Each structure stands twice: as structure tokens, then as C-alpha cells.
Amino acid sequence: MSNFINDNFLLDNNFAIKLYHEYAINLPIIDYHSHLSPKDICNNRKFKNISEAWLEDDHYKWRAMRTMGVDEKYITGKSSNKEKFKKWSSIIPDLIRNPLYHWTHLELLRYFGFNKFLDLNTADYVYDLTSEKLSYDSFSTRGLLKMMNVKSICTTDDPLDDLSYHKEIKASNFEINVGCTFRPDNLINILSKDFMKYINDFGLVSNFKIKNLTDLKNAIINRINFFHESGCRISDHGLNFIPFEDIKEKEIEIILKKRINGNMISLEESLKYQTLILIFLSELYDKNGWVQQFHLGAMRNNNSRMKDKIGKDAGFDSIGSYPMDVNLSKFLDKLDSNGKLAKTILYNSNPSDNAFFASIIGNFNDGSHKGKIQWGSGWWFLDQLEGMTNHLNTLSNIGIISTFIGMITDSRSFLSFPRHEYFRRLLCNMFGKDIEKGLIPNDMNLIGEIISKICFYNAKEYFEK
């Protein structure tokens, strides 16, 4: 391992080494998009073993195990936790060049001090070592966050959530800020078979019986006010693409009533409804001073057989190819023209859209805030060395890299925070190579300050103001 993950892992020259160890390594983490469980943080859960902490909800690992021919009983089935871990360990040597290989060993080293290679031969030792350490109070969910110098995280929360766990966390005076994020995808997915049930539930928590568009808007205002009063300042949307259709309120009223009454609507009608609701939501975000996030382009739950067997979001997703340009531009322009465009973070899953995303953010930066419109970090299939490298290079060439607000985990695992280290090492190495080539000044104070901003201070300023 001394020739693998050592102090200078991913750092190719002395400039990169100096940048990382003097300007990046000790900075706190602001993780503004994750899928961590607020219940686990509230209850300060202690995992019984590494399988609970690592394999319980990680569809990245599930996907790799299936590819390697591992039976589902060792993935999401009823096999014992140790059996599942040994199956996972057995495939690690075959994951070379997949980011999971780096993440796995980086996490074992940073949390548990294990500095050898994980495989079937070391699986029993690692299982026992990690199980023992996870029994310590310092390895509870809160302890794991503190161990990685996390300053602030955001969970992803449905509008139906009562946010009771967040309230308890705040009341406990936990030193790490645990924020909530308003994720109204179920309100927007009007073609979903569960839409009518969701609208009914949404009305119940909002104290509105939703019969029409006015009722729905009032219910949305109610829930956004509730989230705001509970400390929420960020929203998030997971969409194939941003819809933008010509809309009239009376037409949307008819479409919504039709759907509430149990009738099917056309794709065109659904896009009109989605357009109106997205604009309405975004205007409310701006009114409340929120940051809005849009995760775009993932093609989800492709394997219908496995979705029926296991459920959604289980590792059967892929990069989609959707029209991103015209609709997104019109959507942002509509909000901007009305003076109601909130700070916005855009994420793409298809690398062919990189140049477009890097260029469109510049159209709506209006001088009101540094880096008001952000192209978010490499997301999902792109949060690996090549994906992040391409993202940073494209942003540097078309936008302004010094305003970038940095990395997120986008993870369900409390052991995923070394991904910030991974990103920071890559970032420092890129700048170090540029210094070595004479492309940027050999000025450690100047470049080090930019590194520090990207790793921490830009995000701190972005979400505080």
C-alpha cells in the first residue's frame, strides 16, 4: 500500500504536493448534497459491522457485484452480513481502474487505518477490525462525520417529511450543521402511477384538500414555509430534463383536474403541468432566498424486472441522452426576466453536455453574487478521475474555475467523505501540473488561495449569503 495510497497519492509533482498539504488537506467539508439518513444522525446510530455501514444502501457496490456474477442473495438478499462482505471483498481485485477500487481502499485507510489490499484473503481480518472499531462511540454516525472534519451537510428530504429528526438534531446542539433539502420530484411526476396518492398525502400534511391548481399552489406555499421555518435554504430536483412549454393557467387547471380524477393525460399535457409547477417553485425559492439544484439527465430504473423485485434506485440506472439546451435556457431566462432567478446549481450526467453546461451558467451570472449560477461537480457516473478532470478543465476553459463551489458526496454512506479528499488531491494535481508546465504562475499564495476557495470557502460564502 506504501506505493498506492500514500501521503502523495494522485499528486505527481512537488507543486501539487505543496498545494495539497499546505492549502487543502486540513480544510473542513461542506457537503451540500447527500442522501444520508437524518434518522441515523439523530439517533447517533452505531453500525454493527462494515456491511451495515458500507453495503446496506450503496447501489454503486451492488451494481459492481452483479457485474461480477455475484448472486442477488449476497447483495440485497438475506445472506448474513459477513457473507455479503466476503463476496464484496472477493471482487475488489477485479475492480482495478473503477473508482470503487480507490474509494474502497481510501475509506478503509482513513476510517480504520487498514493500509493493505482488500481481497478474499484479508476479508475476515478487515471484517473483524472494522466491526470492533464500529463498536466504539467515536465511530457512531456523528463520530464518523466529526472524524472527517465535516462542518455542514445537507440531506435530501421529501416535502411530506415532518423534519422531526432535523429538529431533534438541532436541539441536541450537535456541532455539525445538518440541513434539510426540499426535493419535490413526486409533485412534478404527474405521470407516475402513485401521483394521485401522493397529492392526497401532500394535501393532508399541508391542511389543504387539493381539488384544483389553486389548492395545490397553496399547499406548496405551506410546505415551503414549513421547510423554511425549519431551517431549509436549499431545494433539489432530479429530472430527465427541464421542460418548458407554452402554458396557460386555465389549461393547466384542466390537466391537473383530469389527473386528480384518475384519468390519464398525454405527455405534452404532463410537460405543460411540469413547466408551470417548476416555475412556481423556483419563484418561491427566490422569494425565500434559497439555492436551487437541478440534477439532470439520468435515465433511471431501466430494468423493470429488477425494479419489481427489489425496488427503485437499486443500481439499474444509466446516463441518458436528453435535450438539455433550449428548454433549460428558456427556463432560466423566464425566471431571470422576471427578476426571480435564485442561486442555481446545475448538474449533468452525460459528459457530452459538459461544454453546454459550462457555457450556459455564464448567461445568467448577473453580478449580484460571485458565481451565482454554478455548474455542479461531476455527478454520479462522472464523479471519478476522468469525469472530474474533464469537468474542471471544461469549466476552466469556458467559465471561471476560481468561483467553483467544490465537491459533494451524493452518497448514502457515512464512510463516503474521503471523496472530498479524492477531489482535492485531483484538483491540486491539476494546478500543480500547470505550474510545472509554466501555464500558470509559480505563486503558491495566489494558487493556494484559489485551491482553498474551491475546496471550502466558495461554498461557505455561497450558502451563507
Structural account:
- It is a single chain.
- With 465 residues, this protein is of the alpha/beta class.
- The protein contains 20 helices and ten strands.
- Helix 13 packs across helix 14.
- The strands form three sheets. A five-stranded parallel sheet has the order 4-5-6-9-10, with helices on one face. A three-stranded parallel sheet has the order 1-2-3. A two-stranded antiparallel sheet has the order 7-8.
- 42% of the residues are buried.
Write the layout of secondary structure elements.
Blueprint: H1 14-24, E1 29-31, H2 38-42, H3 50-54, H4 59-67, H5 81-91, H6 99-112, H7 123-134, H8 141-147, E2 150-154, H9 164-171, E3 177-179, E4 181-182, H10 185-188, H11 195-206, H12 213-229, E5 234-239, H13 249-260, H14 267-287, E6 291-296, E7 298-299, H15 304-310, E8 318-319, H16 325-337, E9 343-348, H17 354-360, E10 373-375, H18 385-398, H19 418-437, H20 444-464
Parallel strand pairs: 1-2, 2-3, 4-5, 5-6, 6-9, 9-10
Antiparallel strand pairs: 7-8
How would you sum up this structure in a few lines?
The protein is an alpha/beta fold. It has helices spanning 14-24, 38-42, 50-54, 59-67, 81-91, 99-112, 123-134, 141-147, 164-171, 185-188, 195-206, 213-229, 249-260, 267-287, 304-310, 325-337, 354-360, 385-398, 418-437, 444-464; strands spanning 29-31, 150-154, 177-179, 181-182, 234-239, 291-296, 298-299, 318-319, 343-348, 373-375. 42% of the residues are buried.
